[in-house]
Design goal:
The protein is α+β, with helices and mostly antiparallel strands and about 70 residues long. It has one domain: Arc Repressor Mutant, subunit A, CATH 1.10.10. It is built from 4 helices and 2 strands. Helix 1 packs across helix 3 and helix 2 packs across helix 3. The radius of gyration is 11 Å and the shape is globular. The model has no long low-confidence stretch (mean pLDDT about 90).
Length: about 70
């Protein structure tokens, strides 16, 4: 159940940041390790709720259209 709450929190945070956030940014906002956040990011990418885009050395996460309906 905790897993679902973290994914919901990531989606909620990204909905407030349309400019995109890195895994490090999300980890700081959630208060958990960035490796843990990365696991959930990949799950959300797989379910097409979010997507990532390479911007220089950073990978920014954005809410996808499917994630906005949540």
């Amino acid at each position: 159940m905790k897993e679902k709450r973290i994914t919901e929190q990531i989606v909620e945070i990204l909905s407030k940041h349309p400019e995109g956030l890195t895994a490090v940014d999300l980890a700081k906002l959630l208060g958990i390790h960035r490796h843990t956040v990365t696991k959930y990011i990949y799950q959300l990418i797989g379910s097409e709720e979010i997507h990532q885009r390479q911007v220089g050395p950073a990978k920014l996460c954005y809410l996808s259209k499917k994630g906005e309906k949540r």
